[in-house]
């Protein structure tokens, strides 16, 4: 059995719509082996409602890899455990796609480079930000033009920490993309180009003092804020409560605030986010995460006697 560990991700980081992503220290694990008959072992509350037949996303994506490699492997035993909440803007579907691609590739002797898996993942997700971050780890600046995906990976370093406020309601990416206009004023496009450029430069150079301004966005957040009660107030007030910068995580509804890992008063920001959302009738769970420097990683080697969940538990407690 091959076991792959994949990080969650946050996309956009404000202005980098569909083009910036950062891997986060929250993980999913996918196990895969050839079998006589297709079987699924889905563990944990995040797996509720996930299909356990050949319509399963992991199965389908794995078959895509085998087809491209000219390998026939119609029956698979698939295991999955995930700590990444579904449909909240933390890249759960991207992590599943990346987990399936990486596991299937490893299972047949890794005929594809990660770069090729990135092309497949981008064409499945239709944007490269979440899949790029989950696959490569760190921070990814990328584009996908409908045919070709390109990226440059930046080291996320160890000086940043992220507070995610995960509302207890789901918001599909489809719904959150549906509220976006099909064209935007030139001034908004220029606003985003400037801010996104500044953001990438700030991340490359460690100029975190610039994040507060650089993470502002005019292309998607103003439209999406109507879907997340309290979001506008959180975006406006987070800096006064200690955030270096704040944004909607991907398509939402999760909000992500960045802070210096060494900062003292973290509780102040946490209380502000929780109380502001609460005032608007939204209860949210709070988690402190770190940027994940590692992307998709194959954990098992031949002869490892541990079961899937033994490997996952060993890894979580490591
Ligand atoms: N960049 C995408 C969006 C991410 O904002 O719609 C979705 O996960």
Report on the architecture of this protein.
The protein has 318 residues and is of the alpha+beta class. It has two domains: 2-155 and 292-317, 2-Layer Sandwich (Ribosomal Protein S5, domain 2); 160-289, GHMP kinase, C-terminal domain (Alpha-Beta Plaits). It has helices at residues 57-69, 92-107, 114-125, 129-136, 173-178, 186-205, 211-214, 221-224, 231-237, 266-279, 308-317, and strands spanning 2-11, 20-34, 39-43, 76-82, 139-144, 149-154, 160-167, 245-248, 255-260, 284-289, 297-298. Strands 1, 2, 3, 4, 5, 6 and 11 form a seven-stranded mixed β-sheet that branches. The protein has a four-stranded antiparallel β-sheet with strand order 8-9-7-10. The protein is globular, with a radius of gyration of 19 Å. The mean pLDDT is 95. It binds L-homoserine. The site of L-homoserine has 12 residues, from α4 and α5.
Low-pLDDT stretches are none
Q: What proportion of the residues is helical, as a percent range?
A: 25-40%
CATH class of the largest domain: Alpha Beta
Query: C-alpha Rg, in Å?
Result: 19 Å
Q: What is the overall shape?
A: globular
CATH fold category name of the largest domain: Ribosomal Protein S5, domain 2
Structural category: alpha+beta
End-to-end span in angstroms? 21 Å
């Amino acid at each position: 059995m091959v076991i792959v560990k994949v990080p969650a991700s946050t996309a956009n980081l404000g202005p980098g719509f569909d083009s910036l992503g950062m891997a986060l220290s929250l993980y999913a694990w996918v196990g895969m082996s050839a079998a006589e008959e297709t079987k699924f072992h889905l563990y944990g509350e995040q797996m509720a409602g996930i299909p356990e037949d050949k319509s399963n996303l992991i199965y389908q994506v794995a078959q895509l890899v085998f087809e491209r490699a000219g390998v026939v492997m119609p029956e698979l035993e698939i295991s999955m455990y995930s700590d990444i909440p579904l449909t909240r803007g933390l890249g759960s579907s991207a992590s599943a796609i990346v987990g399936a691609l990486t596991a299937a590739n490893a299972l047949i002797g890794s005929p594809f480079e990660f770069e090729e898996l990135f092309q497949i993942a981008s064409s499945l997700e239709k944007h490269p930000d979440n899949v790029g971050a989950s696959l490569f780890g760190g921070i990814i600046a990328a584009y996908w033009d409908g045919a070709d995906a390109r990226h440059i990976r930046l080291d996320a370093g160890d000086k940043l920490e992220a507070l995610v406020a995960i509302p207890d309601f789901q918001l599909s990416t489809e719904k959150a993309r549906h509220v976006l206009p099909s064209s935007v004023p030139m001034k908004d496009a220029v606003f985003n180009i400037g801010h996104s450029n500044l953001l990438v430069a700030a991340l490359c150079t460690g100029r975190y003092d610039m994040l507060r301004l650089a993470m502002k966005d005019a292309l998607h957040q103003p439209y999406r804020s109507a879907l997340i009660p309290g979001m506008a107030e959180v975006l406006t007030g987070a800096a006064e409560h200690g955030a270096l910068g704040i944004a909607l995580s991907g398509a939402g509804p999760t909000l992500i605030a960045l802070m210096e890992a060494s900062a003292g008063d973290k509780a102040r920001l946490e209380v502000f986010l929780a109380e502001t959302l609460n005032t608007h009738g939204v209860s949210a769970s709070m988690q402190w995460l770190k940027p994940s420097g590692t992307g998709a990683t194959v954990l098992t080697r031949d002869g490892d006697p541990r079961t899937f969940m033994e490997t996952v538990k060993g890894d979580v407690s490591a």
